[in-house]
Fold these 3 entries.
Entry 1:
Amino acid sequence: MDEHVSTARMIRPRLRLVGGVCAGFAEHTGVPLPTVRLVTVLLSFCGGFGALLYAWLWVTIPSGAAAVDPLPKSSLARSRAAFLPAAPIQAVPAAMAGSVATIGRSSSTVFSRADTDSARAAPVTEILLGLALLAAGGALVASRLGADIPLAVVVPAIVVLAGTALAWRQFADIRSGAAQQSSALLVRILGALVLVAVGILLFFVTGTSPSAWTVILAAASVLLGVAVVTAPWLLRLWSDLADERAARAREAERADIAAHLHDSVLQTLALIQQKAGPHSDAARLARAQERELRVWLFTGSRSAGAEPATDLAAALRRIAGEIEEDFAVHFEVVTVGAGVRVRSAASPDTNSGSTDAPESLVAAAREAMLNAARHAGGAVSVYLETSARGIELSVTDRGPGFRLDLIPKDRLGVRESILGRMHRAGGTAAVRLGPGGAGTEILLTLPTQTVPVTDDHHTETSVR
Amino acid sequence: MTDHKASDRAATESSAASAGLCVLIVDDHSIFRSGLRAELDADITVLGEAATVDAAIARVIDLQPRVVLLDVHLPGGHGGGGAEVIREAAPRAPHTLFLALSVSDAADDVVSVIRAGARGYITKSASGAEVSEAARRVADGDAVFSPRLAGFVLDAFGAVAGETAETTEELDRLSARETEVMRLIARGYSYKEVASTLFIAAKTVETHVSSVLRKLQLSSRHELTAWALERKLL
């Protein structure tokens, strides 16, 4: 039975008769459920062994619902484990009988490092409960065999062990954030503590004839017991506080660095761009550096450039950045209206009520921007407007300008990759003379039936 | 505010007469100050420079420049940066106008200085010629909007969502014409290009932009007041 528990996780199903132990055991081992139940009942008549075993499993085996949360706990434990010297972590309770020595060792190590985390606290609960039940079972067996059992010692010991174990479990719950209601938890903790206190008191009161010394000793032991039980909790609170303080210090430091970089480096980069003129290599490098720095400073994500942008505005900015690296051009990207996500072409074609902009719009915009960079350069405006009517995107340059009917028929750039793409996406594209008769303006529109806007209000706030 | 406006107009006439434009550069980075000083057009006279909020307030009151080129982020004072300079200095320098310069395009930065009374907002990557042009425009009583600021205005006033002001008196929404003008400015059009595209006079464009600026400063629209509250401007 032990190896079953230790190899894979045994779970008590949600659908249960009493505690779900038999059902869980049956499911885990493959033994028919009625057989398991029968054996349990039979064992219960053998000095109550079956009932004790049942109780022990009931407490130690996670139920179906609770089994969801070991993941964060274990990941927490892993991250913590790096800082602590290696100690034998008994993930699963040791055997009930025959390994008392192991239990003693592991429980003592756990007790000695009272600041252990919740993951290591779990076996402590089970070990303590196991000890309590072992004591109870041993007493039962011994009394069967006719030995004279000092009940005055055994009963309090069981109570103390059970109380400590329960308290420990509550603390672990608090720590792991599984606390559903702090008031209920508090009541349970107090109950466990009272159990400990009563047990310790029982030791002395029922033992010998009461004298002043036994009373003092009892009081001292109660205090000590409560202190031992609450110590891990206090230590955890303390370490939580320290963690939080450290995190806040890191955050403040980061903000400090950001402010400094913002003031000094960005200013210098702006100056370089200003001095060098939009067409020079120096300006291009400064601009690329500025963009990277801004991404790092204000979004906090170092890999922002690597992953494909899901937001249309972000996608346009990323494209602008990429083109700026290759051409002497500066894009001024202005986005207005609610944010629109980009629907990937790889995903199965969603219905027409989808809230996303098709990838072909992004591709057409990219081509238009590339066109402006190649033939005009300098300052190019990209304006994106998303509204209830649809998406409107314009790319305006100040270059020599060109007319669509003058482009040779075999030139695919504009005709196919911009006009054709937009047409297939259900939108329109127009190439016209830029403002004031200079340059070129490419206007891409996508009417609304394919693109209702998403709810979040996307403003310039995102563009620091 | 109204007498401020009147004095603006009076000062506009006087500055138009004297060709030289006197500016004060306020920025906490000496490299940037000297760079900008060298880049500005020859007919613009730099009266002085200031690096902190306190120094800037003192200098504005002392020198009474026509235009202050003001960095949004400044050390000193009560931590209010450029907006604090405007609030403290403007009452004692009635003929001085403020043009905000910033490396940041963040909405709260824009809102804070505009609502404090700046007549325009441009980014620091603008060239010397662009800054000179903007300064001249501000000196002539116009508002200066960068494309980003125009885009931000469209968002803040819900213009894209189809909200339109019924009357010209309404402060919380843009009129249809103002929306059109803002949309073109957001596309990078100059005032002249906006005028020719919309078939209106350049002066009319300027009127629209000034009216938008006034709304930006006086409106109690939620989006604007929220930002202003955040920056403790109200």
Note: The CA atoms of residues 20 and 147 of chain B lie 28 Å apart.
Entry 2:
Amino acid sequence: MNSEQTISDDQVNLEDIEIRLLLEAIYQRYGYDFRGYSQASMRRRVLHRLSMSGLPSVLRMTEHVLRDRQFFVTLLNDLTINVTEMYRDPEFYRAFRNEVVPILKTFPFIKIWHAGCATGEEIYSMAILLEEEQLYERAMIYATDIDKNVLTAAKKGIYSIHAFKQYADNYRRAGGRHSLSDYTTARYDSVIMDQRLKRNIVFADHDLATDQVFGEMHVILCRNVLIYFDRQLQGRVIQLFSESLDMGGFLCLGTKESLRFSGNEEAFEVVNKPLRIFRKTQLHRT
Amino acid sequence: MRSGAMVTRMEAVVMGASWGGLNAYSRILTSLPAHFPAAVLLVQHQNASADNRLAWLLRRYCRLPVISPRDKEPIRAGHVYVAPPGYHMLVDRDRTVALSMSRPVHFSRPSIDELFFSAGHIYGGNVIGVVLTGANEDGAEGLDYIRRRGGMTLAQSPASSEAPAMPEAAIAKGAVRETLDLERIGPYLAGALP
């Protein structure tokens, strides 16, 4: 049996307090607000950075964060999760094409907000889909993320060629009408998205935890972002989405995300349950 | 020392497996009674895919409801939660499931360590951690954390494991309070939580 000493509830509580102080310090010093994030996953990521740093405690790490911007940037990279791929969950894009696009075709102009766009792979996926449906000319995609560094990458639209085979496969499964390589140029180990695809995309930094309504959207995509928030912040953000959407506007969440636990369920009706496509209720019944 | 860990009421059983896991889980879950008084959370290493086939398969062997949880799903006694492929499954403070797509641990997402660390954090001494058959070292550190938090820790005996590396790693780490053959784990859990 290992002789290392036990870890008491008291020690664990102390660590939790130190993590809360760290998040408060980050907010006050740099303006990034992680205070409403899911404690369980925040804790894991903070402790991961702590063990990599060799520092003795979260409290000591907080000192470094306050004084050393470079150290903060490293930590920020751990705290924001930027996992994405082109046509992630291809069946979602297929459903979007079949169930949402026909309705969008009846609109004269389409405003789409992609909240938490990370490095942009899913933005270009949507731009291509709209192009193929002859909708892109009248569409505007607002691509936002909390992290300015990933937005820079999203604007560039240059991706590793190693992932591209998977992306091309996703594209086909998503119902793509051509070949994904029709929209890209290969150069060395990179694949560059066509400049033309960027013509109706606006990139902006936006923090769902603190920033305000993004008005009169017809579609909001926010997939696998809410899982990092606690229930209270999830509720706030769903409310924000509801206020940002036009009547009958669509909300698309990640496949494991739910409206049920954040208490705004009645503001939306279900379009596709397994793929988490919802629609803002058009009329309030009395 | 062994029974010293069994203090108050157990809130949860957390289990992790990789190679050979389906067989191990089906054997264990078959032994659990319909009124099992703790929540069961389990991780099986598998490739990311849209559906949680494991949850569907395990329903046939289990009297308890088997759930592929959504994010923020409340964790309830007498229910089995199977980590969805492609997500880490954690326990949050308000006894809900927190899903995450943070980096794979031991090349795995879901990772056993991620579940075990969060379970050790939240449940303290009121959890039983079980490392089952598997071919890498995921789970050893997390199981040791559960032990140091005062929880009960079990490993499937390497001899009864299709792939012994995972329980061996947990045993070598000093994380394991009791090693049991596969056929004894289910009855042990049923008996430990009368």
Note: DSSP finds nine helices and ten strands in chain A.
Entry 3:
Amino acid sequence: MQDLIVLFHCIFGNSHLFMTIEFDHIIPTPLKERLLQKRSDVWHSPLTLQQGEFIKIKAPSGTGKTTLVHILYKLRYDYEGVIRFNNKAATDLTEDELAELRQQKISIVFQDLRLFPNLTVRENIELKRVLQSPLYETDMIDEMAALLGVTHILEQKTVLCSYGEQQRVAIIRALMQPFEWLIMDEPFSHLDIVNTKKAAALIEEECKKRKAGFMVTDLDNDDNFSYTRQLIL
Amino acid sequence: MKGLNLLLKKLIRTGAGRKRFFMAFVGLSVAMILILAAVQIQTNYNELLHSKSNQDSIANFLVLNKILNDQNIGATALTDAEINDLKKQPFVETVGLLTPSRFKASIQSASDRFPFFTDIAFESVPGDFIDVTSKDWKWDEASGFVPIIAPNMFLDFYNFQFSFSQNLPQLTQQVVKMIVFKVNVYGTNGITTFNGRVVGFSDRISSLLVPQEFMDWGNTHFSKNQDAKPSRVIIRTKDPGNPALVQYLKQNNLSTDADKTRFSRYRQVVDIVVKISWVTGIIMLIFALLIFTLFIQLTIASCKEEIILLVTLGASPNQLRKFLMRQFFPVNILIMLIALLAIGALQLIIHQKLAAQNISVNMLLSYNTILTAAGVLIVIWLVNRFSIRKYIHTHH
């Protein structure tokens, strides 16, 4: 897969360097004692996410799944070790560079979704479409909403939607922007198997369109995606 | 961008605290009207002060002397210290010493056809202070001719009073300038006589003036009292109506032509009005800015969650600051325009009212007023920017 992408770049002369994410012995300070006693592919290990990889992080409850996502997305700073984006330490990012990173390089589906409750579903998705110069036209919102079966709630206030609906809205929102990495924290926890399949198919398609990679966390094994790597947290 | 702004407007509601906002709006408007009015009044007054009617040469030259009272009879001389102090005053441009003649002198007619004789005293001033230009205005020891500048009021006094009572002919300036008479100077060794003639008339100094060289020569050779101090000085000032000048004269027991300093009284009133307007305006401006700052703080605090989530989703704090600035700042431009319109209307009314009394002030706002408005706008911009930066920053 990676070789294919490299080949693609060579053939079409795309010199754009996709972002690699490097974890250099990361360990969250509050969980340090506990986590050091377990074997982990991520915590306190060297780990590099190569461009275009589909990575599954399997993590039982309480192993710091959300902590990892938040550290990666620069929402937490209480950790030891270094995270590097394309060899640049995350701590060195300026305010504007961080915003640029979140607008262009890393998209996210939070476990707690983080939608604006008082905006309509459409407005929530639209926000992410227009926060940077738009990647897609507006009709893409309707298209994806139709695919995931949330067309009927588009004009509804988000606060009134069920958690499962909101989860699909959060996924569509994340797919509205350009990205090289999609980070998902238990994105299908409230979806049935049918909807999970639909959502996973859409995510995979969108990632491939962008030649982007993703990192998804979940509690158990699954075959939602054709993962390139599965790691234990 | 438009779509984003629409969404941001939904998320960051500026509706909270509308009453406060309205108060700040009114407060700032009144403050601006007061401040701009102060500037405009000051400008109008300056315009009146320096208009042509008040710019004549007489008004800018003041002859000063000590007020004569029982205590200082015979001791009205101005000391060097007093003169130097006068020179240091900001309202004094130059100081000239009026040198009185300390010798006895008289003038008499050169011919018997038109006989006259009178004892006389002269004064001299440095050339800069003389408003008469005459090629004859010079003297040296070899010269037997002494040019004299007479005050206009002397001729008026002669023409309109003395000539009637004495049954003498009226004389024009030109005629007087043609009359040559004898100038007698009395020294210890007898009388020295010169030919004299009036070469010009002055409104500036009310005494008979002779060239400084003649005066110095006369005082050296004929005076019994060598080191006499001047009792009068002439000063040149830009603004004889300056209250500081009047105040200074009063403090130092000096007097001058009160008519020339009459503007100072109006000026003091204007100054007080302007000062009150300034102080009130600035205090109100500070309070209004404070309320606006609180309003910004309140808005940001009430949307704290939304702002944090926006930044989490990738909105740059700069993007948000710019958005907030666009929400809060334009109203200030509106306020400034309202204030300028109000003062502009007032100025037009003042212009028309004063025009009816033949006093002309500009019907339009002064540049100063507009510049002040722009200046305050910049201050408001900075304050807004500062508070937005501060509060958007503390959250993250």
Note: The longest strand of chain A covers residues 21-28.
